[in-house]
Design a protein that fits this description.
The structure holds two protein chains of two kinds.
Chain A (H helix, E strand, L loop, with lengths): L16 H11 L1 H11 L2 H23 L4 H5 L3 H12 L6 H16 L12 H12 L1 H5 L14 H10 L8 H5 L10 H10 L4 H4 L5 E2 L2 E2 L2 H17 L6 H20 L7 H5 L4 H8 L10 H21 L6 H18 L10 H4 L1
Antiparallel strand pairs in A: 1-2
Helix pairs in contact in A: 1-5, 1-13, 2-13, 3-5, 3-6, 5-6, 5-7, 6-7, 7-18, 13-16, 14-16, 14-17, 17-18
Chain B lengths: L3 H6 L17 H4 L4 E2 L6 E4 L9 E2 L6 E2 L6 E2 L14 E10 L7 E9 L18 H10 L12 H5 L7 E6 L8 H24 L3 E7 L3 H11 L5 E6 L8 H9 L14 E5 H13 L5 E7 L7 E6 L4 H7 L11 E2 L6 E2 L13 E3 L20 H5 L6 H10 L2 H6 L10 H5 L6 H61 L5 H16 L5 H26 L6 H12 L1 H23 L7 H16 L6 H8 L3 H22 L6 H13 L3 H23 L1
Parallel strand pairs in B: 1-13, 8-9, 8-11, 9-10, 12-16
Antiparallel strand pairs in B: 2-7, 3-5, 4-6, 6-7, 12-13, 14-15, 14-16
The chains are: A mainly alpha, B alpha/beta.
The complex binds iron/sulfur cluster (SF4) (2 copies).
Chain lengths: 355, 693
């Protein structure tokens, strides 16, 4: 009889890459559901479009590269990229936006760099930035939360407006964007920056209905949902606590210091933490293992860098939200960070002692 | 801040980076007492079962051996013998599949037990009265090598002269499934402690730390009870975490120290021994029971009766498995060692050896084989798990790229191949396998580099030598030409032997004294010539009467008749003389190997000359024997070259080269030296005779 020869170790942990990706996707669910409930069903359609596009593009490239298609699709990494992009873009954006974005993410950013594990940039974020730069209008047309909308939307309206840019009853997106008070409403971050640019003080801007408690109406809950999902991931040891803590920590500190220095022109730390895509970025996107730093110390630097960039771009840059740029910029520094934060190997002296 | 020792005394246990918590699955075997394996039909005893070299074989095929009789003898410190595990007949001594990951055949002795289990005479030592050397010898002669896995000879580890602060007894047994040490402690704690006493005598440590994982409460209690009379023995529970039983990790756990890179634990005052080794030491010293059996955990879901077995070394794995009700599946894996670091066996005739702690025969569902390798997602779980604080994903990347410089920069050499990284890797990448390949490649590269360097050094040395030989020849020719010219000016084309000799003298005078004026030189030469002519005639007259060796005489007389031969002889003699002069005056700065050889020969000849010999006579003694000298020189050169090639692995300084050549050539050539000496003596005698007369 023949005996099987194998190399040690012969025992393995049961959690595979596919499971990890799936768990991360699942952890997005609370956020997705909340978004659908509060911002309309557009996000569901975007998700469907994104996932289909991602799978098709991945399969196509894998075929061209002569790799086993089904086996690789099962690793769920394309799924995760699609989900992250779909929840990051405005829910009523035209259908081709997400299709172009997802195809770009999978084909150019991921597969052309060598496929899973070899991409330098986070595919979802690279695609997001591409779309933002190429189609700035469509990418910033966030509708206000349903509670603030002057015209109520049905699920069918979502389909209509995504595929035709008009709701079934014939309203255009910009018409839909206007709130109950008749004034067009952007996201809280957007509103705040426009107001500040117009010379209003923070307190004056704060009177607008898009704001609620210490953050934006709807957005606060969305961020809380992603925070919950993220904490679950940490608890499940799927992501390390270092990156999210560093991202949120540096953002918090910078926002706190600046708002203390000038409370009329800088929003407070809590507003920053619970606005826009902060929690989504901190827990789900910055922690993408492939494009993030891999050393313990490096992850802290990497996270802190992202937090800092988010703060800078939000306050001084030209775009309302900033996490996509911040993450891409931080991605570029990863090889450097990793190299200089190598841990001290057992029995070796620390590099600082060597000098 | 309490001192380290105080903290240790207070029971503090530290932690190490990383580590994993695989399911231990030890209950399968740890709940039953140790069973005794019945005598198998055949025992296969590899002659080398440890790290080091095999001893010298003491028995032949067909011999009957008694239980405990040494089969090999240790002829050096890296060897430990193997013993007959029972009485029986040696039926074969031939290569047999080795219990090693490579499964390379190793010389193995096959013993057919006769069933009588008859012991040799045993001589237990009295521990209280015997000295350390006797103890160390007994440990070596009993064939004891580390039983935890590495198999390092124990006598070397405990015979070190460096001071030892802590003796750590490794009873952690962190690999899943294995419970051999656990059971040994449960059943033989007192013997183990006696063994520790012996190790303490040899090492004189400040404290003994016994590390046991906290999932072995019975063993811990047994060891504590056995140690309770001994003040400085501390039993410490360490958290069950793999690989806390790794040498470096256990040191970190128990003393918070790290073994510096490239050093050994003893360099920081720590020696570690396995519990099994301590037990074997006690048996060897107190019972004269050499290492011929050990406890093996035989486990896995394909066995009806997983349990610990006391098996004789050499018992084939198949016999052990069968004794436990083995029911193999298709594509069965049989692992020697634990699931983390063990290796699969190609066939089951592989025997149990000193380092075999476990035989694992799992089902495919129990330990599913990892074969869905996908790309690394840089999740860093591996780095979090690595007990050596390495970055396995970077190592993987550079292993695949075969970038040995980067691999060294990322300290691949510090990887202990524990497998923690591969265990946690979600992409199921067999990381350790990549590292093994990379390590082997680096070793190969280093080996190649060394070989290339040696070859280069040899080539360069040879080139340098050839070049110098060429120069030397050119110089010699030039000098010969010059001398000859001078000679012609001085005395025309006279070609008698006397003349030739005179020329030598002239040259010698030249090289010894400061340049005399031409006229004086000519006069001196004439004077010398006359003297020499007289001397030579005298020689010739004596030649028929002396009892000097005929050959020499023939050599002496033939040049006289043959003028052509004479000139050749003269030329050679001149060269000799010059060299002799150089040797005498100490002008030997740029002598190459060959010259050095000849010079040495000359000086040997000189040294043996007993008469009041002047440089003139020494020149004489060699001059008439040019052919032999030339042959001797040629031989010496050849020898020197050979010697040089063999002996100079790295590029040596030219001076060293010369020295080496001198040493090695003069020594192995006593006959030539003797002949030269004889000639010299004869000549000197003649000279003396002629001067007397
Ligand atoms: S096998 Fe090597 S790299 Fe992997 S965890 Fe163990 S020491 Fe670290
Ligand atoms: S655990 Fe595996 S997938 Fe994760 S970084 Fe290490 S090698 Fe890559």
């Amino acid at each position: 009889m023949s005996f099987k020869i194998a190399s040690s170790p012969h025992q393995h942990n049961q959690r595979s890459t596919a499971q990890i990706m799936r768990l991360v996707t699942l952890a997005c669910l609370p956020g997705i559901i909340l978004q659908a409930v509060m911002f309309g069903y557009g996000v569901i359609i975007q998700l469907a479009l994104a996932i289909i596009t991602a799978w098709c593009s991945e399969a196509l490239i894998l075929r061209l590269r002569n790799k086993p298609v089904l086996a690789r699709l099962k690793d769920n990494s394309a799924l995760l990229t699609a989900v992250l992009l779909a929840i990051a873009i405005p829910p009523y954006a035209p259908w081709w936006l997400i299709v172009i974005g997802t195809a770009f993410a999978i084909i150019m950013v991921k597969q052309l760099y060598g496929g899973l594990g070899n991409n330098i940039f986070n595919p979802a974020m690279a695609a997001y930035v591409l779309l933002l730069v190429s189609f700035p209008l469509q990418m910033t047309q966030w509708l206000p939360p349903l509670s603030l909308q002057s015209i109520s939307l049905t699920p069918l309206d979502a389909v209509c407006s995504i595929f035709s840019q008009f709701s079934c009853s014939g309203f255009s997106l910009s018409q839909l964007q206007s709130g109950i008070d008749g004034i067009s409403m952007a996201t809280p971050l957007d509103t705040l920056r426009t107001d500040l640019n117009r010379g209003l003080t923070l307190d004056e801007s704060w009177q607008r209905p898009v704001f609620f408690a210490f953050a934006g109406t709807g957005w606060l809950w969305l961020n809380l949902a992603y925070l919950a999902g993220g904490l679950l991931l940490i608890q499940q040891k799927i992501i390390s606590w270092r990156i999210p803590v560093a991202v949120l920590g540096s953002l918090f500190v910078l926002a706190a210091v600046s708002s203390l220095a000038s409370s009329d022109t800088f929003a407070g730390p809590l507003f920053h933490l619970f606005s826009g895509g902060t929690m989504l970025a901190a827990f789900f996107i910055a922690t993408d293992p492939v494009s993030a730093s891999t050393t313990d110390k490096g992850r802290l630097y990497y996270g802190a860098l992202i937090g800092m960039l988010v703060f800078l771009i939000r306050n001084f840059g030209g775009y309302p939200d900033a996490y996509a740029f911040a993450i891409l910029l931080a991605n570029m520094t990863v090889p450097l960070i990793d190299y200089y934060t190598r841990p001290r190997t057992y029995g070796h002296r620390a590099r600082s002692e060597l000098k | 801040m309490p001192s380290l020792f105080q903290q240790i005394q207070a029971g503090k246990v530290w932690d190490f980076h990383g580590g994993i918590h695989p399911p231990t699955r030890k209950q399968q075997s740890s709940q039953k007492p140790i069973a005794v394996m019945p005598l198998p039909d055949r025992l296969y005893i590899p002659l080398r079962q440890h790290i080091g070299v095999a001893g010298v074989l003491l028995v032949r095929t067909g011999d009957r051996v008694l239980k405990g009789q040494p089969l090999t003898a240790a002829d050096n410190s890296m060897a430990v013998p193997v013993h007959a595990p029972t009485s029986g007949i040696v039926v074969n001594i031939a290569p047999h599949t080795s219990p090693h990951p490579s499964a390379m055949p190793e010389l193995t002795l096959t013993l057919e037990p006769d069933g009588q289990d008859e012991w040799r005479i045993r001589e237990p030592l009295n521990f209280a009265t015997c000295d350390n050397l006797t103890l160390l010898n007994r440990i070596q002669e009993s064939g004891i090598a580390g039983m935890g896995g590495a198999g390092f000879p124990t006598h070397l580890k405990v015979g070190m002269t460096q001071p030892v602060d802590y003796l750590i007894i490794n009873a952690v047994e962190c690999e899943p499934y294995i419970s051999a040490d656990d059971l040994l402690m449960q059943e033989a704690a007192t013997t183990i402690v006696k063994g520790i006493d012996i190790l303490c005598r040899l090492l004189a440590p400040k404290a003994v730390l016994i590390g046991i994982e906290d999932d072995k409460p019975i063993a811990t209690a047994a060891m504590m009870a056995a140690c309770n009379q001994r003040e400085h023995y501390y039993v410490r529970s360490v958290p069950s975490k793999y690989p806390s039983g790794g040498e470096k990790q256990l040191i970190q756990l128990l003393t918070n120290k790290e073994v510096p890179n490239g050093r050994r634990p003893v360099d920081i005052g720590i020696v570690m021994q396995n519990v099994g080794t301590a037990f074997a030491v006690a048996q060897a010293v107190l019972d004269d029971h050499p290492l011929i059996s050990r406890i093996v955990t035989v486990t896995g879901d394909t066995l009806n009766q997983p349990q610990n077995m006391l098996a004789l070394l050499g018992t084939p794995v198949s016999a052990l498995l069968d004794a436990c009700g083995f029911q193999p599946e298709a594509q069965q894996r049989v692992i020697m060692g634990g699931p983390m670091m063990g290796f699969t066996l190609p066939d089951l005739s592989v025997p149990v050896v000193k380092t075999t702690n476990c035989i694992l025969a799992p089902t495919a569902t129990e330990l599913p084989a990892a074969n869905n390798e996908i790309e690394c997602i840089r999740c860093s779980s591996c780095a979090d798990a690595c007990p050596a604080s390495l970055l396995p994903q970077q190592l993987l990347w550079y292993s695949k790229a075969k970038d040995s410089t980067k691999l060294q920069e990322y300290n691949l050499a510090d990887c202990i191949e524990c497998g923690a990284c591969a265990y946690v890797c979600p992409s199921e990448i067999p990381l350790v396998q990549y590292y093994r390949v990379a390590k082997a490649e680096i070793r190969e590269q280093q080996h190649e580099a060394l070989k290339a360097e040696q070859a280069k050094a040899r080539f360069e040395a040879r080139n340098a030598r050839l070049e110098q030989e060429k120069q030397q020849r050119a110089e010699r020719n030039q000098q010969l030409a010059a001398t000859r010219k001078q000679q012609q000016q001085a005395s025309g084309a006279d070609s008698t032997v006397a003349d030739a000799l005179a020329r030598i003298k002239a040259k010698q005078a030249q090289s010894l004294s400061t340049e005399p004026s031409d006229k004086m030189q000519v006069q001196a030469q004439r004077e010398l010539k006359k003297q020499q002519a007289r001397a030579y005639q005298q020689d010739k007259a004596d030649a028929s009467q002396t009892i000097a060796p005929a050959a020499d005489n023939a050599d002496n007389s033939s040049p006289a008749v043959n003028s052509k031969a004479a000139s050749v002889a003269a030329a050679l003699a001149r060269a000799k003389a010059k060299k002799a002069a150089q040797a005498n005056t100490g002008i030997s700065t740029d002598i190459i190997t060959d010259t050095a050889v000849e010079v040495t020969e000359n000086s040997v000849a000189l040294a043996v000359t007993t008469s009041p010999a002047t440089p003139v006579t020494s020149a004489d003694t060699i001059a008439p024997d040019p052919r032999k000298a030339a042959v001797a020189a040629a031989l010496a050169r050849a020898k020197a070259r050979q010697q040089q090639q063999v002996q100079t692995p790295t590029e040596p300084a030219q001076a060293n080269n010369n020295n080496a050549a001198i040493n090695t050539v003069t020594e192995p050539d006593p006959r030539k030296a003797a002949i030269a000496a004889a000639i010299a003596r004869a000549k000197a005698k003649k000279q003396a005779d002629s001067e007397n007369s």
